[in-house]
Each structure stands twice: as structure tokens, then as C-alpha cells.
Design brief:
This protein has two domains: 3-115 and 223-316, Vaccinia Virus protein VP39 (Rossmann fold, 3-Layer(aba) Sandwich); 139-220, DNA polymerase, domain 1 (Orthogonal Bundle), CATH 1.10.150.170. Helices cover 41% and strands 14% of the residues. It has 14 helices and seven strands. The longest helix is centred in the last third of the chain and has 16 residues, at 251-266. It is globular, with a radius of gyration of 21 Å. It starts with 12 loop residues before the first helix and ends in a 5-residue tail after the last strand.
């Protein structure tokens, strides 16, 4: 995949720009840079920010470098994982000496798989076309979907399909995968999954292999572990008044974001709900909205992949006295 083919439509772009327009001058970390669409819009709207863009996909970084060329004097791009956020920020100081070094002003996490990754069969993410059992976001890692599909035992397969996607037919699907080995490519896998699901259940809910492919992809890329580390690091890195915005596309991710934000907003308070806090908890952030922002009907009509997005954001409070 070349950089010109990595064209990705950023989701909830205007809302992200609006949320990050209020942050103080300083460093903006886009820890899941993709093609750089969100980052370019934020930099254009906020001349006082410089970007540290992080992604583990080399094709995404190549595309982002082209898109962000007008801002090259205040941009650094690094190939790394969002889960290593703290180390990456520490290892890459700001471009300009005047930039605030005591914390970052904004962090953005846009989770999930980008359109170019899904649309190119050679990446193996899609259940709609034949491709290798790959699904790696970082193609320098050795572990692939083939290791999961053709080498995990039945119990491990059933567990990840159930836990990573809430697939109610996880046991049937895992049993069918083991029986069909060796599975040759993504199209073969999609057929096995489809045939393992009862015909009546296949008539609703989209493609019957969607959840299983999601579960395997999340296992290959350790996505929930990466997200947990990135959320903790991002809150720790923010300076007072800095903001963290996260776009999630399925319930497991969104639930983790919601819970981590609620815990940070309460300071981990364990007092009974409705009673004053007496445990000494100190909130570190404030929620910028109680619920999540969703894509409008107009945006979904243009970009169907925006239909499931949930955007949540917090602002860092001052350090406790």
C-alpha cells in the first residue's frame, strides 16, 4: 500500500477540532495518527500547537507525512504503539525550545482500523475479500492472525472470540475453525465462521464474520492492553487545562474509556453514591460531557464507518494542593 492510497475520512472532525481548540499552547500528541486527517485540521486551527504523531503502521505514517507537510516545522512523526505513549513522549522532546515541556496540551486517540487497512485485501483485515491471515497494524511484528486461527487451541479461540466481541456463538465458531484447519486465507475464514452460525441468526446484524474478525484483530494487536496503557499515560502527561479525546468504535473500547474517565473524574472515590466524599479522593480530570458524542445522520450518510463512533473527552485539572 503506498501513501497515496492511504486515504481515510476522519470521523467527527469538526467536534474534535472544537474540543482541542480550547487547550493551551504546547504539544499535541496524536497517538493513533492514521493518515493525519485529524492532526492536520487541529494544527490548522491552533497555531500554538506542535504535533507529535504516533502510529505503528508504516503506510499510515508515510501518508501522514504528505498530508502534514504544510506543518512540517512543528511536526514530529514516530513509528510506535499508543501503549508506549509515556516512553515515546519522553524520548522525543519538543521541536521548539519555547514549547511547554512540563506536560502536553492535548492527546487524541482514534481507535480501531482505518479505511485503507480494511479496504486493502493484502492486510487481511477484511472478511469481504481474500487476503492473507495477517491483520497486523505493525507489520514488523512476527505474530499474525495465522497464529491465532491455525494454532490457538479450541479453548483459547473461544475465549478471545467471546471476550473481544461478545459473540454469542463463540464456542460453535471456535470448534468450526479448529475442524477446518488449515485455514488458507481471510475469505476461507469468513466462510467457516458464516457456516458455523445458525441460518436464522445470519439474517440480521450485518456480515456474520464481522465480530470474529474483530476479535482476532484485537488479539493480534493487543488492542485492549494498548488502550489501557495509553489512557493512563495520556492523563498523566496532560498539563492543567490539557484535554484528552478518544474516539471508540465498539462497546468494549468505549466501556473502558468511560470507566477510566469516570474513575479519574472522581479521583477513585469509593464513598456511597449521593453522599459527600470523605475518603480523600482527588479528581484529576473533569468530564467535558456526561455521555458521548455521536456522528450526525449527515456524517453517517457520507461515511458509514462513523455510525458506531463514540467520542468522549476530559480536561486535566490543576495538580492537587
Amino acid at each position: 500500500m503506498d501513501d497515496e492510497s492511504f486515504h481515510h475520512v476522519p470521523v467527527l472532525l469538526d467536534r474534535v477540532v472544537e474540543l482541542l481548540a480550547a487547550v493551551p499552547d504546547g504539544r499535541f500528541v496524536d497517538a493513533t495518527l492514521g493518515g493525519g486527517g485529524h492532526a492536520a485540521a487541529v494544527l490548522a486551527a491552533h497555531p500554538g500547537l506542535e504535533l507529535l504523531g504516533i502510529d505503528r503502521d508504516e503506510a499510515a505514517l508515510a501518508a501522514a507525512a504528505v498530508r502534514l507537510a504544510p506543518f512540517s516545522d512543528r511536526t514530529q512523526l514516530v513509528r510506535a504503539s499508543a501503549g508506549d505513549l509515556l516512553e515515546v513522549v519522553g524520548d522525543h522532546p519538543p521541536v521548539h525550545r519555547s514549547t511547554n515541556r512540563k506536560g502536553v496540551s492535548a492527546v487524541l486517540l482514534d481507535l480501531g482500523v482505518s479505511s485503507p487497512q480494511l479496504d486493502h485485501a493484502d492486510r487481511g483485515f477484511s472478511y469481504r475479500s481474500a487476503g492473507p491471515l495477517d491483520m497486523r497494524m505493525d507489520r514488523s511484528q512476527g505474530f499474525t492472525a495465522d497464529d491465532v486461527v491455525n494454532h490457538y487451541d479450541y479453548a483459547a479461540l473461544a475465549r478471545i472470540i467471546r471476550d473481544n466481541s461478545d459473540e454469542r456463538f463463540a464456542s460453535r465458531i471456535a470448534r468450526a475453525i479448529v475442524a477446518a484447519r488449515p485455514i488458507e486465507d481471510s475469505a476461507h475464514l469468513a466462510r467457516v465462521v458464516r457456516d458455523a452460525i445458525p441460518a436464522a441468526a445470519r439474517r440480521t446484524g450485518g456480515h456474520p464474520a464481522k465480530r470474529t474478525f474483530q476479535a482476532i484483530r484485537m488479539e493480534v494487536n493487543a488492542e485492549l492492553d494498548q488502550l489501557a496503557a495509553a489512557l493512563d499515560d495520556a492523563v498523566a502527561l496532560l498539563q492543567p487545562g490539557g484535554r484528552l479525546a478518544v474516539l471508540a468504535y465498539h462497546s468494549l473500547e468505549d466501556r473502558m474509556v468511560k470507566d477510566r474517565f469516570a474513575d479519574a473524574a472522581s479521583g477513585g472515590c469509593e464513598c456511597p453514591v449521593g453522599l459527600p466524599c470523605v475518603c480523600g479522593a482527588e479528581p484529576t480530570v473533569r468530564l467535558l460531557r456526561r455521555g458521548a458524542w455521536k456522528a450526525s445522520a449527515e456524517e453517517v450518510a457520507v461515511n458509514r464507518r462513523a455510525e458506531s463512533v463514540r467520542l468522549r473527552a476530559v480536561e486535566r485539572l490543576g495538580e492537587p494542593a
